[in-house]
Amino acid sequence: MPLTAYLVLAALVFVIGLFGVLTRRNAVGILLGIELMLNAVNINLVAFSRFRADVAGLIFTLFTIAITVAEIAVGLAIVIVIFRVRRTIEADHLDLLRG
Amino acid sequence: MTEILGFWVAAVVLVAASLAVVLTPNLFHAVLWLAVALVATGGVFLLLDSPFLFAVQLLLYAGGVVTIVVFAIMLTERLVGESIRQTSRFVFNGAVLAAAVFVGIMGFLLQAGVVARPAASGDQLRDLGRALVGPFGGPLQLLGVLLVIALLGALYFARAED
User: Fold this and answer.
1) A1, A38, B14, B144: least buried by Cβ within 10 Å?
2) Which of B37, B51, B40, B34 is nearest to B6 (CA)?
3) In Å, how far are A29, A42, B58, B84, B88 from A22, measured between CA atoms?
4) What is the CA radius of gyration of chain B?
5) Is residue A99 a part of any domain in this protein?
6) Are B123 and A39 in contact (CB under 8 A)?
7) Which residues of chain B lie closer than 8 angstroms to A66, CB-CB?
8) What is the domain extent for residue A44?
9) Whole-complex ipTM
10) Is residue A98 part of a domain?
């Protein structure tokens, strides 16, 4: 398959994740959308690495995966704390900072 | 031939599972669909001759992330009953914006020329290891520090209250 096929697939997954982030009300649902978007970026990185025969893309993918794991751990910890304090994780109800 | 077939299978599974993640009303099912999508992504990595990343994807994402999310859902929602159902809002606006972004990306992609796929290099894992301790040694150390800080921070946030 040509490089473009992989890039189109990644773009499709990216916009699906974007749609999820925009439309989900639940904070965990929003995090799942972010996971999909980061996943699409990984496909792009690996595809470019393969077609340019450059190992740097694989290293960036490894770094992205590790940073995503850190991000999801902190994000879910924040969700749990918010649930303890407010008893809800609906993003629409979390407007403490609204002026 | 095998690659074309594998690509279409992985692509269909990946897109279908991704759509299920953002559309299914049951949050728990959404996480399970995310696991399917992550495994399909690992399949795409295999097609791109990166078995090492396939293993990392399965271990860290499909194994680690999905487990954490399932635990978070169990801690924040009652497993049975209506509270696990979730609704979406701004579906139309979100779809329009996502489609616009997709069209924009496609505009770039269609301008690009065809890139020939080079022959598979002999020992990708060795190159990867060399690069990780060579030019990327510093970033690797920083990544370790970042992971420790992030996980300690997550532990501190979610600790049991006294």
Assistant:
1) B144
2) B40
3) 10, 21, 27, 19, 9
4) 20
5) no
6) no
7) 60, 143, 146-147
8) 3-93
9) 0.88
10) no
Nearest by CB to residue A13, choosing from B15, B91, B117, is B15
Q: What is the predicted pLDDT for the residue at B85?
A: 63
CATH number at residue A41: 1.10.287.3510
Distance from CA of A60 to the nearest CA of B (A): 10
Condensed to tens digits (0 to 9), the pLDDT of residues B72-115 reads 888 776 544 455 566 677 788 888 998 999 999 988 888 877 77
For tokens 């300690």, the residue is: B152
Please indicate whether, in this complex, the C-beta atoms of A43 and B41 are within 8 angstroms of each other.
Answer: yes
B28-51 per-residue burial string, b: 16 or more CB within 10 A, e: under 16: bebbebbbbbbbbbbbbbbbbbbe
Interface probe for B, chosen from A1, A6, A43, A92 (most Cβ of B below 10 Å), is A1
In the Cβ-directed half-sphere of A15, how many Cα atoms lie within 13 Å? 18
Domain count, chain A: 1
- State residue B37's pLDDT score: 93
In a domain, A58, yes or no: yes
pTM above 0.80, yes or no: yes
* pLDDT tens digits along B134-154: 889 999 999 999 999 998 988
